[in-house]
Write a structure and sequence with these properties.
Strand content of chain A: 15-25%
Structural class of chain B: alpha/beta
Strand content of chain B: 5-15%
Radius of gyration of chain B: 22 Å
CATH superfamily of the largest domain in chain B: Type I PLP-dependent aspartate aminotransferase-like (Major domain)
Order of helices and strands of chain B: HHHEHEHEHEHEHEEHHHHHHEHEHEEHEH
Distance between the termini of chain B: 64 Å
Number of helices of chain A: 11
Helix content of chain B: 25-40%
Radius of gyration of chain A: 17 Å
Oligomer: heterodimer
Number of domains of chain A: 1
Number of domains of chain B: 2
Structural class of chain A: alpha/beta
Distance between the termini of chain A: 32 Å
Largest interface: A-B, 42 and 55 residues
Number of strands of chain B: 12
Shape of chain A: globular
CATH architecture of chain A: 3-Layer(aba) Sandwich
Chain lengths: 279, 434
């Protein structure tokens, strides 16, 4: 489904069903250099189990037009415009890596629009090494090699795609190669520069789920600890349940592909809990 | 664009796609001889059928043992995924049937395996798919054969049996300029010698029966999607980019940005044509792939010695092997196949047809049969066997003469193979008793 957002075409995969904004809405936000298809094994299921799904292609990624947005706050603003364009008042946001920062920022700044957030492969701060940033700017193929190597815990994860018989490692590489030149650096620089993470966590007023890969080398679980504590404190202050933290064994950063069913189970349980209601 | 692998080729040959069995601890890949797989509950069943979750339902569509082989060959070819098929022929048919239908057109190298030639020139024509055969060495011929309804270009890494080296980068550019993919048969080369996807090919297939299995035991095929072709940008493949009523109205290019071809091929082609790979055969092929780097290096070393011996033999008119300097594609082979040109090649014997018959029947180590890629050395006379349906003109165009013999060099002591050939030449040169 394509709608115009800020005068540019914006694509969202709806899980193989027509989008109906009157049903509970789940919005999936991909990470750097990715597109909607990374959520294939979570989004289609939810779309056929009572939810309306928008798995986004962020600006400059996949089928969406425009240039990649250079800040997390800017992407969050665009996400709210995307919700407006699709007639969505409130939604659960599910974000991976860069997308987790977008979900966090959106939820804190527009609490009336966000029911819950699920942060997958999240870390605050989400620092990117100088070597990787330099490669992203000057030698994208090398940067993709580094990212692919650090994003996977194994070459043997199955099933990692809509059907058996896929190499999740090559699949991820090809998806990253498809994004336009310069997108990678823009995405990673946005993650690296995002300084408002803890402040946003302090301001959260909705249920939070963390899904972390125990063998994640891009955003190791220890880099989410303070963020989790901040969310716990905010939840207690607002009378909300403590954040749910699901750490998946034998899983790297590419959680959607390496352990798709474990992630889906965590999301299903989270979506079954009461959402924050406005007011 | 080249890429660094997660692990090196030799490691991937052993490990890609396989891990110790979680239930039993079995280190080797178990043979899952089960037709069907139990659903956890009704919701799980519906989710698997609707591709909401991934898993195995029925072994015609997918099987855990076959999936290990598919993932392994995908990793070795640097492809996004693969599909195991009943044979190499089934892999070729699956590729074409996924992309073409009545009214479609294929441009193919004329130097093809005889079975592939039959499929294209006779059988598929009956189903409305036309093929134009071209000289694989002529870029102009490839270009001039293109039509608006052309759906793919097809060639072999090493043409059968003259070993024409396919200039994959050039032919891929021609295909992509027309908005269609290049499909390459890499049976003779395996990913150990060449990765067609890194040179521009979009789809790669193998008769896994040959060097991948390596022991002449089972029949199987593999079709690999490299994952770089942009089906949506092409605009020529509504099968992949428009809703498919035959599978939940699915738009395969929305479900997978990089592999809509594989989704359609499995969800339609395997489902409806049913030419699936047996898990028993997949296991045997996996055993072969585990030693592929070791075997291919030895196959090539032996082949180079035998080709050298034949090229200097007085009863040999011509040896067609790109590693030899007089082969027309020698320079191209050095560029595209730095590890060698495989272990299958042909040569022309001097003398009449009877001498050729005496030669073949006198060989003791070489087995006279219709196969290549066995651990044992093999010999065949293409004009009367694998290519017998082709007329003289087509045979000549494919580099096949009455005296052409095709060898597949095995893993024996090369000195023993040379001795066997020498003895057969002597027998062939002796006049038959009156």
């Amino acid at each position: 489904m394509i709608v115009d957002v800020n005068a540019s075409p914006a694509y969202a995969y709806t899980g193989g069903r027509p989008f109906d904004p009157t049903r509970p809405v789940v919005v999936f936000v991909h990470g750097g250099e990715h597109d909607h298809s990374v959520w294939a094994l979570q989004s289609r299921y939810l779309a056929h189990h009572g939810f309306s799904v928008l798995a986004l292609d962020l600006p400059g990624h996949g089928r969406s037009g425009g240039a990649a947005i250079a800040s997390i706050e800017g992407i969050a603003d665009w996400l709210l415009a995307m919700l407006d364009a699709n007639g969505v008042e409130r939604a659960t946001l599910v974000g991976h890596s860069l997308g987790s920062l977008v979900a966090l920022d959106t939820a804190a700044r527009a609490p009336a629009r966000v029911e819950r957030i699920a942060l997958v492969g999240a870390a605050v701060p989400m620092r990117v090494s100088d070597a990787l940033l330099d490669a992203a700017r000057n030698d994208e193929p090398r940067a993709l090699d580094m990212i692919n190597f650090w994003s996977h815990s194994t070459i043997n994860a199955r099933p990692g795609a809509p059907t058996p018989g896929f190499s999740i490692f090559v699949q991820n590489r090809r998806l990253m190669e498809r994004q336009c030149a310069g997108v990678l650096f823009t995405d990673f620089a946005a993650c690296n520069a995002y300084a408002a993470g803890f402040e946003r966590a302090d301001a959260l007023a909705c249920p939070v789920l963390f899904v972390l890969g125990q063998r994640d080398s891009m955003t190791p679980p220890r880099q989410a600890r303070e963020l989790i504590e901040r969310c716990r404190t905010a939840a207690a202050r607002n009378g909300l349940p403590a954040p749910t933290v699901v750490e998946i064994a034998d899983c790297g950063h590419s959680i959607m592909a390496e352990r798709p069913d474990a992630l889906l189970s965590a999301l299903r349980a989270f979506l079954a809990t009461p959402a924050r209601r406005p007011g | 664009m080249s890429q660094r692998d997660f692990y090196g080729f030799d490691t991937l040959s052993l490990h890609a796609g396989a891990a110790p069995d979680r239930e039993t601890g079995a280190r080797a890949t178990p043979i899952y001889l089960s037709t069907a797989f139990v659903f956890r509950d009704s919701d799980h069943a519906a989710a698997l059928f609707n591709m909401e979750q991934s898993g195995h339902v029925y072994s015609r569509i997918s099987n855990p043992t076959v999936a290990v082989l598919e993932e392994r060959i995908a990793a070795l070819e640097s492809g996004v995924g693969a599909i195991g098929t009943a044979s190499g022929q089934a892999a070729l048919h699956l590729a074409i049937a996924t992309l073409a239908g009545a009214g479609s057109h294929v441009v193919a190298s004329r130097a093809l395996y005889g079975g592939s030639h039959n499929l294209l020139d006779y059988t598929l024509r009956r189903f409305g798919i036309e093929t134009t055969f071209v000289d694989p060495r002529s870029p102009d011929a490839w270009r001039e054969a293109l039509r608006p309804e052309t759906r793919l270009l097809l060639g072999e890494t090493l043409g059968n049996p003259g070993l024409d080296v396919l200039d994959i980068p050039t032919v891929a550019d021609i295909a992509h300029g027309h908005g269609v993919p290049l499909l390459v048969d890499s049976t003779f080369t395996t990913p150990y010698l060449i990765r067609p996807g890194e040179l521009g090919a979009d789809l790669v297939y193998h008769s896994a029966t040959k060097f991948l299995c390596g022991h002449g035991t089972v029949v199987g095929g593999l079709l690999v999607d490299i994952g770089r072709f942009d089906w949506e940008a092409s605009g020529r493949f509504p099968e992949l980019t428009q809703p498919y009523d035959g599978f939940h109205g699915m738009v395969f290019s929305e479900e997978s940005t990089v592999a809509p071809f594989l989704l359609r091929a499995r969800r339609e082609g395997l489902r409806d044509f049913g030419a699936c790979l047996s898990p028993m055969n997949a296991f045997q092929i996996l055993q072969g792939v585990e030693t592929l780097p070791l075997r291919m290096a030895r196959h090539v070393a032996n082949a180079e010695r035998i080709a050298q011996f034949l090229s200097q033999h007085p009863m040999v008119a011509r040896v067609s092997y790109p590693s030899l300097p007089d082969h027309p594609d020698h320079a191209l082979a050095r560029r595209l196949l730095p590890r060698g040109c495989g272990a299958v090649f042909s040569f022309d014997m001097k003398g009449d047809r009877a001498a050729g018959r005496r030669f073949v029947e006198s060989l003791r180590l070489f087995s006279h049969l219709a196969n290549v890629g066995d651990a044992r050395s093999l010999v065949i006379h293409p004009a009367s066997t694998t290519h017998f349906r082709m007329d003289d003109r087509a045979l000549a165009a494919a580099g096949i003469g009455e005296g052409t013999l095709r060898l597949s060099i095995g893993l024996e002591d090369p000195q023993d193979l040379i001795g066997d050939l020498e003895a057969a030449f002597k027998a062939a040169s002796r006049a038959p008793k009156a």
